[in-house]
Design goal:
The complex is a heterodimer of chains A (about 650) and B (about 260). Chain A is an alpha/beta fold and about 650 residues long. Helices cover about 40% and strands about 20% of the residues of chain A. In chain A, α8 packs across α9. The N and C termini of chain B lie far apart (about 45 Å). The chains are: A alpha/beta (about 650), B alpha/beta (about 260).
Chain lengths: ~650, ~260
């Protein structure tokens, strides 16, 4: 029978192929490797050390710091004893750390260095249950004489002494564990209210990881760089769960600042990053190409064009003309491979992105280079994987098919519910929240609205709370449509109306920089933002974009009726100073509806022009008004279309 | 570390230095104890950098003596100072701009490398071993100063604060007994200053290095120094703990520009 807990899995790993690398860390400029057998030995010593420090079955052991082998080993060592590891966010402020420490009732804390120790010491007064702080890097701590502190080395020493007294202690402890035991306690950062502690069992994590290892055919030869916060469920699954299940090696970067260098040195084959990392890498490349010589620039431009045309098809194993295939092969040798290598993606076989929507052009860029980047949708509550894109079925706008053993269901307002072996046990010490999120029969409410298209792919459209309905009863997801509009570089903001209306209408803000550039190149004169926004050429361009969005929406049965029928290009930029956006640049829908009531009425009243006057706050704080006669334009809806083939 | 605390590592007595008719230093005496952080402060043109250059052997005083490690001299010579365990950083950063941070710091080990030019060019046997030992030491410094990410970056491309840190690294690579820092915090923002303070204190604590530093920023000096000597117009104005110096009327006047009466 397969191991049902991580410590049992560790024993297996050490027995079969214990000489393979398990963890790697760059220290003093040199990569040092720990094999699975080494890892097992140190984990056993650690576990004994924890036991000697008074950690008992069921208690919590907190872990805080950057991705370090010591901390990853501590996770498993705690699990050996049947204690529950609680990874904390290393850059959280003291108050937040204290909340989690107190709430989890951690008995022992493994901290990376002085910075983290200081934070824990500060929090300790309110967290009486913390009985010991173990630090792995003692730098700058020569004058710390608090008895609660102990160095990692001396804990290992204590562990070795303990092991001499009771030689088979750890083995006996490991044997007592079972799959239903809590494996890890992960706190969700919680944008609203206090963080909630998600309890995942060994079975939750193991079954999910094993399924995904099979799904993506991960082997023990994968290389992974652990650089995302350990407290985040993603890192726990990728750098811990899957590493144990597939038996691959996890490398820890030298420091947070060296991640990109370390990427190139390690050459990960399996990589996970939120969209903004892919975005910023692409931007860096483009900026550096600006400084390249003319020949290189030309070559780069030409072969990127080739890649854009046929790269994705080649990756998806579609038929491609021989000539194009040849050019692509040449481009791979001259441009794509060197480029990927420069970004540290030279050996990436599989990359995932998740967390938020990734811009289709960014997504397509990487895929066209031949990098298999895919999207997934997940939550801490479901051990990450709810849906993922299978190889060969990758569409930039979907988040993929339900992962193995995951069932999906949809609530009234389009809310996505799922049930899977990864569904969490409970929110720690918070039964009300547990009951609110997880139904009696094991379905988890995600709070996100979405739908399945006819290919069986899930689309996430919005937070369920923001989703409404058109008068004909179909789903209306404003943010989904707005995002599609905002993916055009010349559209800065968009606000779409449609809840309890007959059709959808949009307010559009042009991007002054992008549209201004475009106007200059095309000899379109303008004196102000307002004048530029009102130019017929600009209207034509926006109409074109709206048309493209409509075509995309028409392809989805559920969203076909959400096509934009009328739109207006606003004469002023939506601004946080005027209360139209939040400080983080999110649209304040309700406020805009009030402020632009005249315009909204005109949109739905069928008029072709509307005189609008709105208040503005200037940068010096004075208040004025801008007025203008705005043109309202109709957009042709598209007929429903069959779905496009894989991109 | 040789010797004990409470023993003067360096003593300068009645130093006078003049450039033509300009008297940069007049009859200045003070000492630096083993293991302490000693600051030399004063307004612009007070003679702080001149003092450091005298200790370091760049300038040769017309009068006075320098006693370093119980050996009394009329003047130092730069290479003798370096060989005797004095390392320094400069106010205007004196690094090899085209070389990487790592190579710059390696140059600080030059006194520890015994093999000749030919051996090193061939890079075999003992020369290779020697280089590896020294590289390991330098990697320790890189780790200590947290500059792993810029190891391979040419120094000329680094921001000012990091260049200062590399320069400190090079000085540390010589394993000095006495470290002279010429305005280590000049031109830095608050965060960089705080970082630099921490590094200075850590160097002093972990390696037991004696540190003499010149600094403009009074607040910083008062926080990290054990003792402070105040210069003004080439003369010693005050000498003592930060608290004593701060309370000294002559110092207050010099800094606030009040006429002495």
């Amino acid at each position: 029978m397969a191991a049902d807990t991580f410590p049992k899995l560790l024993e297996e790993r050490a027995r079969h192929g214990g000489g393979r690398p398990a963890l790697r860390e760059k220290e003093f400029g040199i990569w040092r490797t720990l094999t699975w057998a080494d890892a097992r030995r140190e984990i056993h010593e650690l576990a004994c050390g924890f036991a000697a420090a008074g950690v008992r079955r069921g208690e919590r052991v907190a872990v805080i710091g950057d991705n370090r082998p010591e901390l990853y080993l501590s996770l498993c060592a705690a699990q050996c004893l049947g204690a529950v590891p609680v990874p904390l966010y290393q850059d959280a402020v003291a108050a937040e750390t204290q909340f989690v420490l107190d709430h989890s009732g951690a008995r022992l804390v493994v901290a990376e260095d002085q910075e983290q120790v200081d934070k824990i010491l500060e929090a300790r007064e309110r967290c009486p249950e913390v009985k010991k702080i173990v630090y792995s890097d003692g730098r700058g701590m020569r004058h710390y004489d608090d008895e609660i502190l102990q160095s990692y080395e001396s804990l290992l020493d204590a562990g070795r002494a303990h092991a001499r007294a009771q030689p088979d202690f750890v083995e006996r402890e490991i044997a007592q564990g079972c799959g239903g035991d809590a494996a890890v306690l992960l706190y969700t950062s919680g944008t609203t209210g206090e963080p909630k502690g998600v309890v995942l069992s060994h079975e939750n994590v193991l079954v999910t990881c094993r399924n995904l290892v099979k799904f993506d055919r991960l082997s023990e030869r994968e290389e992974v760089l652990a650089y995302l916060p350990m407290a985040w469920v993603g890192d726990h699954i990728f750098s811990y769960g899957q590493a144990y299940c597939a038996g691959f090696c996890v490398s820890c970067p030298e420091s947070a600042a060296t991640v990109m260098h370390d990427m190139r040195e390690i050459g990960p084959t399996y990589f996970f990053a939120p969209p903004r990392i892919f975005e910023s890498l692409l931007t860096t490349v483009m900026i550096r190409m600006e400084d390249a010589g003319a020949v290189k620039k030309k070559m780069f431009g030409f072969f990127l064009g080739v890649a854009r045309r046929v790269g994705a098809d080649i990756l998806n194993r579609k038929p491609v003309a021989a000539g194009q295939r040849f050019l692509y092969a040449l481009g791979r040798w001259l441009v794509y491979e060197p480029l990927k290598d420069a970004m540290g993606f030279g050996r990436v076989r599989l990359a995932y992105t998740a967390g938020e929507a990734i811009g289709p052009e960014i997504f397509d860029f990487y895929r066209s280079l031949g990098m298999n980047i895919k999207q997934l949708y997940g939550q801490t509550e479901g051990a990450v994987f709810v849906t993922a894109q299978p190889d060969g079925e990758v569409y930039p706008d979907s988040v993929g098919k339900p992962s193995p053993q995951v069932e999906l269901r949809f609530g009234d307002n389009g809310e996505v519910l799922y049930r899977s072996p990864g569904v969490f046990q409970s929110y720690y010490k918070n039964p009300e929240a547990t009951a609110k999120t997880r139904t009696e029969d094991g379905w988890v409410r995600t709070g996100d609205a979405g739908f399945l298209d006819e290919r069986g792919h899930l689309h996430i459209v919005d937070r369920a709370a923001d989703v409404g309905k058109l008068n004909d009863g179909t789903l209306f997801a404003p943010k989904f449509i707005e995002n599609k509009l905002k993916f055009f570089p010349h559209i800065k903001e968009a606000v779409v109306f449609g809840d309890r209306r007959d059709f959808c209408a949009a307010l559009v803000n042009i991007d002054l920089e992008a549209v201004g550039n475009w106007a200059e190149r095309n000899n379109i004169p303008y004196a102000s933002y307002q004048e530029l926004a009102a130019r017929p050429e600009v209207y034509a361009m926006i109409a074109d974009s709206v048309q493209t969005v409509n075509r995309g929406l028409a392809a989805d049965k559920q969203l076909c009726n959400s096509q934009i029928r009328r739109f207006v290009v606003l004469h002023k930029e939506l601004d946080a100073d005027d209360g139209e956006l939040t400080r983080t640049r999110k649209v304040r829908r309700r406020h805009i509806v009030e402020k632009y009531a005249v315009l909204v009425d005109a949109l739905y009243g069928g008029e072709s022009h509307c005189f609008v006057e709105v208040a503005v706050t200037f940068e010096d704080g004075r208040v004025g008004a801008v007025s203008g006669d705005l043109q309202i334009m109709d957009a042709e809806p598209c007929a429903p279309q069959p779905l496009a083939e894989a991109a | 570390m040789v010797g004990e605390k409470n023993e003067a590592l360096l003593k300068v007595e009645n130093i006078s230095l003049a450039f033509g008719g300009v008297r940069a230093l007049e009859e200045v005496s003070f000492d630096v104890m083993r293991g302490e952080v000693r600051a030399i402060i004063g307004p612009n043109g007070a003679g702080k950098s001149s003092m450091l250059n005298v200790i370091n052997g760049f300038y040769h005083p017309q009068k006075g003596s320098i006693t370093y490690k119980n050996r009394r001299r009329a003047q130092m010579k730069p290479h003798a100072a370096a060989a005797a365990g004095i390392a320094r950083t400069f106010q205007n950063i004196a690094l090899f701009r085209g070389m990487s941070a790592l190579d710059n710091i390696m140059t600080g080990r030059v006194h520890k490398m015994k093999r000749g030019f030919l051996w090193q060019a061939l890079h075999i046997g003992p020369a290779r071993r020697e280089e590896m030992e020294n590289r390991a030491f330098v990697e320790g410094i890189i780790d200590f100063l947290e500059i792993q990410a810029i190891r391979r970056v040419p120094v000329g491309r680094l921001p000012y604060g990091l260049q200062k840190r590399v320069e400190l690294g090079r000085a540390l690579a010589a394993e000095p007994d006495l470290l002279l820092l010429d305005e280590p915090m000049a031109g830095m923002n608050l965060e960089e200053k705080e970082d630099m303070c921490r590094f200075i204190l850590d160097v002093n604590e972990q390696f037991g290095t004696t540190i003499a530093l010149i600094e403009h920023d009074m607040g910083v000096v008062m926080d990290i120094s054990d003792r402070v000597v105040v210069l003004d117009h080439g003369k010693k104005l005050a000498d003592g703990t930060p608290a004593e110096v701060r309370g000294d009327q002559a110092v207050v006047d010099a800094y606030l520009g009040v006429a002495r009466g």
